[in-house]
Amino acid sequence: MADALxxxxxxxxxxxxxxxxxxxxxxxxxxxxxxxxxxxxxxxPEFLATVNANGRIPVLQIGSDADAIFLPESNAACWxxxxxxxxxxxxxxxxxxxxxxxxxxxxxxEPNVAxxxxxxxxxxxxxxxxxxxAAIPGKRAAGAAALALMDKHLETHxxxxxxxxxxxxxxxxxxxxxADEGGFALSDYPAVGAWIARIRALPGFVPxx
Amino acid sequence: MADALxxxxxxxxxxxxxxxxxxxxxxxxxxxxxxxxxxxxxxxPEFLATVNANGRIPVLQIGSDADAIFLPESNAACWxxxxxxxxxxxxxxxxxxxxxxxxxxxxxxEPNVAxxxxxxxxxxxxxxxxxxxAAIPGKRAAGAAALALMDKHLETHxxxxxxxxxxxxxxxxxxxxxADEGGFALSDYPAVGAWIARIRALPGFVPxx
Lengths: 209, 209
Known about the structure:
Two copies of one chain form a homodimer. Chain A is an alpha+beta fold. Chain A is globular. Chain A has helices at 14-26, 45-50, 74-82, 92-123, 130-154, 167-176, 190-200; strands at 5-9, 31-34, 59-62, 69-72. Chains A and B meet through strand 4, helix 3, helix 4 and helix 5 of A and strand 4, helix 3, helix 4 and helix 5 of B.
């Protein structure tokens, strides 16, 4: 029997949604345990001691009770689920190129596109610190540059790696399709818009909550 | 014959050094092409059109001349080099756990530990913008938290994944061993210090320039 899988998540987090979407596309059952990150529920002593010493979600729990092991980092959890499936290219360059876009997502995209959404649509502008306010223009510019780079790639490619959807697409879809909630105009990136429609049409696709 | 490998790099960049160290540990020959990122040499029209539309180094070039393909993102380039070697765990959880630490490095560690080194030791504090100055305290705290998390893990583990060195160690070593150049006191993290000595002792190890 396969190990039971549990996603420790905040349902508003695109990083958590990546894992749920990967599981859905692969037909893997996934139990859900919800937390509210704005209430410090991932910083409790119990959470830090058991689930993730880094105090963050998502975490993929593999197994149950005393035998459970915990895997933080959204893209690593997706990799765990998708190994051996068509969502990870098997050739040497393709596999590295898939990871290239996943690292791009965590370095150039998520800290800008996702953070502005979190600040502006989840926390709310009134809750921001002076340091956060000062960082908005830089994140606005860097997020727009990431979306422009994606748009340029998608002008000549249906998906990010090769001709089929991969984890690179899932990782980038999560926060891109809700980028308007961070103040980005998706209409400025028409190739991204067409790719979003292709992802939504995949068999097994589930929307974000 | 194996494809010729060329690293497009700035020799002061830890992200570039990861790739050189991976190649050295694996005994792979690697040609070097140097750029000065502080002079805009990775933002020229030629670089953007040919090497990396994202205007960043490192980029691993595979092959030569018209047939060359280009792989940005340091950790993806290391993955390309190390596939099938002992630097990537082969079991399902181990491989995902190796990536977990590599994503942690790019999300929690590099933007703080490496960025402060770049700002304070390479650019110099006099060159920083007001926005960069405002970000220093947050990056100082986040970098210290990343080093503390590493230290806690290394109190009970010789390496980050399992009992042997992997790409997770190479990725985290690059900027950790020069963290003092960003104002972090490595003496505060004794388990990290002992791990640094273990990495330096690996057969084939090469120092950063």
